Amino acid sequence: MQSVGKKLLSIVILLAGIAMLIAALAMDFTGSKSDARGPLLVIGIIAFFVGLYLFPTLKHHRKIVYFIFLFPLLFTFVVTVIIPLVLGIGYSFTDWTGIKFTQVVGFQNYLTMFKDPSFIWSIVITFIFVALNMVLVNLVAFLLALLCTSGLKGGGFFRASYFLPNLIGGIVLGYIWQFVFNNVLISLTGNVSMLVKTNTALFAIVIVYIWQYAGYIMLIYITGLTQIPGDVLEAAKIDGATPVQTLFQVKIPMIASTFTICTFLTLTSAFKQFDVNMALTNGTGSVPNFMGSYLTNGTQMLALNIYNTAISKNSYALGQAKAVLFFIILAVVSLIQVRISNRKEVEL
Length: 348
Description:
The protein has 2 domains: 2-108, no CATH class; 111-347, Orthogonal Bundle (MetI-like fold), CATH 1.10.3720. β1 and β2 form a beta hairpin. The chain has 14 helices and 2 strands, in the order ααααααααααααββαα. It is mostly helical. The termini are far apart.
């Protein structure tokens, strides 16, 4: 009898919570300005989970508790990632102004962006930037990791020093290096700043990105190197393996999964490069386009191009269409990279 009463109580609380949630959402979608909307939403969520927790079903009770603890993270992920992604895809087929849309325009935004030479160039230069950084960042980071795990005196100091640039915000970092390139290093480049021309400006962005990100990737390589069993290295030494042979035939194969993680992180981070690009060059730099004239945004990478389209030009629907394409490119390239890296792991 007591179990039946507890079950009825839990059902009542559950239904009350659901009813309050529906009422709060209805107020939101209808544009109601009632002050009760917020309290209804919060109380409804609490009542829903209290009802779940009180429900006397021992078989699934532990799963319900797990779900209650996971819900804040899942809810945040859905609200901040899944829902904006779905809405963004929908807005890309409209004339969205950032506030509302009046009509569905189909694929017009996608056709428009592919007719824009500056957008095509931003894709090209982004791929060049990603390719350079995937190689150089991982190479520099791995060499630094080898240095810091070699037993060199003051290894902790070097680790902290190499990681420190990663703690500086990209905007601040860009302005610092802009001063360095325009005032400190200008005498080494023939009294012409590296940021003036597109080719040298791109190389300047690569330098700054390596300086900022290599320390972070270095820590991951250090973790992989320190997890190699000591008896394996000792056996290689007894067998007469040189340090170079030990590196290429023992250490690198044993941390193949670490290389997969680092290349994935480098690829995704380089693709999404925005703050340093904006602060260092703001996308400026002349480059010939495919039609014979010149583009004035020769260092404008894909993320910055999307930002300028939506914010500077106030073309939110077109910017959203570019963002959707950006997501597709990043997802496809990341999946291909992980697939290739996993295959290399098996070969090693």
